[in-house]
Design goal:
By secondary structure, the chain is of the alpha/beta class. The protein has 23 helices and ten strands. The relative contact order is 0.09. The structure holds adenosine-5'-triphosphate. The site of adenosine-5'-triphosphate has 13 residues, from helix 14. It comes from Streptomyces incanus.
């Protein structure tokens, strides 16, 4: 069975985001390696990115030429009182300024379009991958965590590629070139400027570790906040119905406050590193200024050299000061990348043997469970399996109702047929062929499902229904499916079957949505139909009409129908009782009523059952 790594503990302050614990060394080492995983996405944009980096380096280095022109003006035309020379110097400075501005503009233009493509490509891959991940993965991951990975995290990645990555390189080269220029101009003053290098490097390393933890926590908290917002919007009826605005708002405020706390912690760390990075070099520049002035007074140094030296040092202020900010953004991007790949690394559903297509023998032996055991991957260790060596045979063309108490595992059993979950052990066969030997495409073509909680997509009614049929299905199939599901109300909608149904079909009633989900299940004329209590939201008259139509459909379809109400049970040829993880009895409704006390108890109190019992007694 496919296993996926569990999601990080998003809300736990003692989880991977805790500032007090910088994380294991292996985790820290992976920062650069994590960023390198972006390479396949960045590859197509590499030429433009490299050109942009070169342009940024040239633009930064142009800023270092200003002090050299200044030195030339001070030691030359100014010392020689030559106004024409001063004007010429001013012209050089103007041209340099223009060149610098143009180069920065060019850099922006170079990266904007390809990086939007990188972000879009990564998002498309994430969406594609999410569609292929097993249901067990989606059971475990909160939707907000997935949403935030596909939005905020990817935006951070794009911003990093457009700005910090290029500037880390450009500013690094500028600092190196500037230091060399200063050392060449005067090595003593150059060494004074270099004094803060070691303490700044040590403080940067400590900052990086702490900031990494804080940014992980903040990004996970954004995911949790997104989950709460999403649940509140989807569950707005429950919230209003139960008057839970205040408690829901309180829960939101709590999470929001925690996120604010983490963001403030990040801001404090950033303020600390910015203070250090600004103060220590400023002190060194101050020291160099005092020493330089004394040496100019002693005649050991020309005034022009001191002006050029200090102008170079001042030109390096932005590249040096930006390091804290750039490191912070790099850390946030490493975290975003890590979060992105946590999802991308999760194992997809095994596709099944697509190439060696297995065809199911016609007129075979129906749907069969052979000693099927199932345990949810996240079930507590030692807990009994939900299904324990289930044996069940549904003959070809037969419809079998599955009954059992709430939580007995009916939904779980039905989910195994279309392989929404994989059986832990045992086999399920369709007309004698193991379902794991069929390609997913083939399996889902032959087996149709309708769930108790019907999900409709933001699309036309017709699109929602024909989703269950082949690509060539048209009006005929649509009308037939709507007829079977007794969904005539569709024709009364403003645009008939072309009416858009709202988000999750919320503009329709529960019963209307169930009927559309049922229509979707029968639209493709499947050989095997799995229905998880599909009529629960219908009134008795509509249910009776749907049942009559379904009975006609079920004549040549092998069906497994989860049922709670005897009226649904009566739709089936036979009934299977699921209890304690096993099939305890199989027979007709009336047989089981007579012979199985548990079944009789389960159905007790229902008018249909009571009527059947009275008939039996007569
Ligand atoms: N994703 C899951 N992870 C872990 N346990 C689960 C998961 N889904 C269901 N369960 C557990 O499996 C058991 C069977 O659930 P299932 O939904 O199959 O029951 P059911 O018979 O269909 O119930 P109902 O009649 O109420 O719909 C329950 O104890 C439930 O808590």
């Amino acid at each position: 069975m496919a296993t996926t790594p569990p999601p990080p503990e998003p809300l736990s302050a003692s989880g991977p985001g805790s500032l007090s614990e910088p994380g294991p060394p292996s985790e820290r080492r992976t920062t650069v390696r994590t960023l390198l995983r972006l390479w396949p996405y960045v590859r197509p944009a590499r030429t433009r990115l490299v050109t942009a980096a070169v342009v940024a380096v040239i633009a930064s280095c142009v800023s270092l030429v200003f002090p050299l022109v200044l030195k030339w003006i001070v030691d030359g035309p100014v010392a020689e009182r030559d106004p024409a020379g001063v004007w010429l110097g001013a012209l050089y400075l103007l041209l340099l300024g223009l060149a610098e501005a143009l180069l920065f503009g060019l850099r922006r233009w170079l990266v904007a379009r390809p990086l939007a493509g990188v972000e879009a490509g990564m998002r498309a891959d994430l969406y594609r991958h999410l569609q292929r991940l097993p249901v067990a993965f989606h059971d475990r991951w909160p939707s907000g965590q997935l949403l935030s990975r596909g939005t905020t995290d990817l935006m951070l990645v794009r911003m990093f590629l457009a700005f910090p990555l290029v500037f880390l390189l450009a500013n690094g080269v500028t600092i190196l070139v500037g230091v060399v220029i200063m050392l060449v101009q005067d090595w003593v003053l150059g060494l004074v400027i270099l004094i803060p290098t070691l303490p700044v490097a040590a403080i940067c390393a400590a900052f990086e570790r702490r900031y990494s933890s804080a940014s992980r926590l903040a990004q996970d908290q954004i995911g949790d906040l997104t989950t709460v917002v999403e649940e509140s919007v989807l569950g707005i009826r429950v919230i209003k119905g139960f008057g839970r605005h205040r408690s829901q708002a309180k829960a939101f405020r709590k999470l929001s406050k925690e996120l604010r706390g983490t963001e403030l912690r990040k801001a404090r760390l950033l303020a600390m590193i910015m203070t250090v990075i600004t103060t220590l070099p400023e002190l060194a520049i101050g020291g160099a200024l005092v020493l330089g002035t004394v040496r100019v007074a002693d005649g050991d140094l020309s005034a022009g050299t001191l002006v050029a030296f200090l102008s170079t040092a001042l030109a390096l202020r932005w590249p040096v000061e930006s390091i804290g900010f750039l490191l912070a953004l790099s850390q946030e991007t490493a975290t975003a990348t890590q979060r992105y790949f946590e999802v991308m690394d999760a194992e997809e559903e095994r596709p099944g043997p697509d190439r060696t297509r297995v065809t199911v023998a016609e007129g075979g032996e129906g749907l069969r469970f052979h000693g099927v055991t199932f345990r949810y991957p996240d079930a507590p260790p030692g807990s009994p399996p939900v299904l324990d060596r289930v044996d069940l045979h549904i003959r070809p063309g037969e419809s079998m109702a599955l009954v059992g108490t709430t939580g007995s595992g009916k939904t779980t059993l039905t989910a195994l047929v279309p392989r929404l979950h994989e059986a832990t052990s045992g086999r399920i066969t369709l007309d004698g062929t193991d379902i794991t030997a069929l390609s997913r495409e083939e399996l889902r073509r032959r087996v149709s499902v309708a769930f108790e909680e019907p999900t409709l997509f933001s699309a036309e009614v017709a699109e929602n229904v024909l989703m269950g049929a082949g690509a060539t299905a048209g009006e005929g199939e649509l009308e037939r499916a709507l007829g079977v599901a007794q969904a005539d109300f569709v024709h009364a909608l403003p645009q008939g079957s072309r009416t858009q149904v709202g988000e999750q079909g919320l503009s329709l009633s529960g019963g209307q949505r169930q009927r559309l989900a049922l229509a979707r299940a029968v639209a493709g004329r499947p050989d095997f139909l799995v229905l998880d209590d599909p009529l629960s939201a219908l009134d008795v008259h509509t249910e009776a009409a749907v049942e009559a139509a379904l009975r006609r459909v079920l004549v040549d379809t092998t069906a497994l129908i989860v049922a709670h109400r005897p009226s649904t049970v009566l739709l089936a040829d036979r009934v299977a009782l699921l209890s304690g993880g096993r099939i305890r009895a199989v027979g007709t409704h009336h047989e089981l009523l007579r012979t199985n006390a548990e079944y009789a108890h389960l159905m007790a109190g229902d008018p249909v059952t009571e009527q059947a019992e009275q008939e039996d007694q007569r």
